[in-house]
Amino acid sequence: MRLPSLRGRRLVSAMLFAGAALVAGAVIGACTSDEDDQQAQATEQQQQQMEQQDQPAAEQQQEQQRAAPRAQDSGEPRGNTIQLVQDRGTLKCGVKQTQPLFGFRDDQGNVTGFDIEFCKAIAAAVLKDADAVEYVDASDASTRFELLADGQIDILIRTTTITSSRDMELDVDFAQTTFYTGQGFAVRKDSGIDSTSDMANASICVQTGTTTEQNVADHFTDIGLDYEPTGGLSQDVAAAFFEGRCDVLTADASDLASRIVVRDDADDYKILPQIISKEPLAPGVRDYDSDWKDVVNWVVHGLIRAEEIGITQANVAAMAADPPNTEVARLLGVPFGDGEVATLGFDVVDAQFIQRAIAAVGNYGEIYDREIGDAIERDCTLNALARPLPSEAVDCGPGEGGIMYALPYR
Amino acid sequence: MSAQAPAPPSPSAGGPPPSDGVPLFYRRGFRRLLQQGLYVAVTGLVFWYVYDALNLREFGFGFLDEPAAFKVGNQWLTDIDGVTENRITMYLVGVWSSLRVVFVAILLSTLVGVLVGVSRLSSNWLVARLAMLYVEIFRNTPLLVQVVLVYAIFLVGAPIIQEVVNIGDFAFISNRGLAIPWPVPSDGLWGVPDWFVGVWVALLLAIGTVAMTIRRSRQNRERETGQPQFANRWAFGIFAVGALVTFIVLGLPVSIDRPYIEGTRYLEGMVIRPEFAALTIGLTLYTGAFNAEIVRGSIQALPTGQTEAANAIGLSGYQRLTLVILPQALRQMIPSITNQYLNVNKNSSLAYAVLYDDLFRVAGIIQNKAGHALEMFFVIIVTYMLISLVISAVMNFINARVTRVGV
Fold first, then answer.
1. Omega of the bond leading into A388 within 30 degrees of 0 (cis)
2. By C-alpha distance, which of B109, B139, B143 is closest to B338?
3. Smallest Cβ distance to A51: which of B22, B49, B369?
4. pLDDT, tens digit, for every residue of A189-223?
5. Is A327 contained in some domain?
6. Hey, is the C-beta of B355 within 8 angstroms of any chain A C-beta?
7. What is the number of structural domains in chain A?
8. Do A267 and A256 lie in a common domain?
9. CATH number of residue A77's parent domain
């Protein structure tokens, strides 16, 4: 046998070094696999979850793919977002920036929309300044829950559907629903289609979603009609529909509305009142942060209550100066007559937080009229006030006409 | 690097003393063992890591056997309702849709390639420059852009269904597609369409075989005697007469199904949907440009003596091309053109951009609902590979045949 040359020895040394580095890397990789186990669990949950519905139907599938695993399963209180927000002096609000009506960034960089108003209302309530909001782009459905779990945003207000699996498996808690929608159908007004029963053999453009295709297939099986699907990405199918390729476009009703409203010929289209899935859209906060969730919840309820009892942006100051009754006084955080100011039990915000929110954005009805208006019919939908109250309603079947609304299990 | 590397163990350090004075580390046997061991260890770790990180314990294809519960558009010759079928069936519907596009695009792009490639060498200035313009435009722009552009042209350019162009109640054009008459099996002598068509096909095959045999024998005689025997004309004539007799005796096996419009939907006939057309035309134009360059290159690679010799013996331009140039150029072309065919297969996934339900999109719908992304991508990759391998096999077979024939 010959001894290897010097050159050979160098080569061997280099190989050995590289081998050692590989082994070291593998060992380090193995040692850090605790995290991977958590991720693996999360992946497992996500897969189960993806078997269920997801959505607003318009969104893409992998959103939970990268959502962070639940940071703590112990149920210990964690974080104190309201303190964080007040110390920072701004509210980091994760919003959609690509959907007119709900969250849209215009040419000048202004972010407007229905969801944005709630960011302002919460900022006004907590920070006493409706403009102290930093709008973080959460347009990408696949990373929105991760932004929240990572603490890059304080609250997620972005046409996000409450579902049982999201609530239970992700690091997100949902506050009061701000908008009720569902998968709907858009047609040309002159098409003569008033409901899905008029759609026999229709050509339907189906926006790809997690279960959009299934919802429409299920529905047509139920009503015993046939149709001809053309499916694809949101903007592609919408474009095809507006060019007359299909008779019908199906997606979330709110999404349909925002596609139509930006068009010059918006008047030629209508959205059918028929809805074939449940999509309650609500603000999301992190798990185990009940003070923060309480505040968000009661700001939303406060804005709705203000509409119910007739407090508006215009008259809120006058109402606060001279409240007509004890409830108005309580809601606005002012004394009634010679009485004390009721704090409503909130010790993390002052008593006038609802008053400031109303002064900043108006009541729920005003927000709706300003941001959505006629683009999505409000009367006689779930987004209208619960009036007439069930006791006053007429023509209701057994168990109908109330305000019970179960959140979707999926 | 070598300075930081651990020093080789000294000959005296540990282990049994080497018999021939070579340190253990430098013995060939030990070195091989070490290398193999390291390889196995590292590979094992990598696989274990992947297995663990991707949670492959859940890996399985059972989800494909569950009801699909969605519909797939753009079907042809099939009308499979995903509401009642399994996911795997709907996936195969998508595969069938992809195959149609690939097959048609390969045929058309070859045709375009030969025509344009030959035109580029034309002595006609205009023809040559037009061919060059085509090649440069379609070879230098992205395929995605071309496909989307063609689709947009169909959607915007063609009239909406309410203003459909009616060509004599025979064909219809709108942006829902081109509807044309299409043959469907008709009831034959025994009232069973499938049998009847089968009998027809069998008879035609028999007549065709007879015609080909006669053609072959006439070709042989022509080669032996040098006298023209008109083999092709004979073969064609026999086939035509045979088919005519069959038709007179048995009647037509198919009836022509004319399309009509009810409401906003085409019924009967055959509908070429804009999604299919856009994808196929996009692929054809793009691949055709590359094929044209391959054809031109292969022709130019032939010695000029071939053309000169063909001219010298008085062949016409067409004869020179079909008898002398193309058969020889074909041998050069096939390997390069095979690559283009494989590209057509892979590029067919751009269906995603034009709302065409190919295998990739159907797989996406399944994945949306069922999760199992890894398994689905595994299936997708295997499918594309299989299609590619079949194309390669066919082309290798053709290549072997072409190169076997002596020049």
1. yes
2. B109
3. B369
4. 998 899 999 998 899 999 876 678 888 988 998 99
5. no
6. yes
7. 3
8. yes
9. 3.40.190.10
